[in-house]
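DM between two lab members

TW: hey, do you still have the HTH merR-type domain-containing protein entry open?
JB: yeah, one sec
JB: this one, 71 aa:
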Amino acid sequence: MGVKSMVGKLDGMLRVGEAAEYLSVTAETLRNWDKSGRLVPTRHPVTGYRYYRQEDLDAFLAAIVAKREHE
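TW: and the structure you got?
JB:
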């Protein structure tokens, strides 16, 4: 499989900066959440860069809101 076809599989994915902006946090916060297992990114098959699916970010936000509502 060529690099171009692998990159095409990442359509619809958000890069770290985009995901951080979407969640209103810093890129470093996302990296920390990755290290702790709170929010697991998809890794680019060639570069290893982190990418996030918007559906995963939405689910993460929903879980935070639900937790706060039950506190």
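TW: got it. The longest strand covers residues 50-53. The two ends are 49 Å apart (CA to CA).
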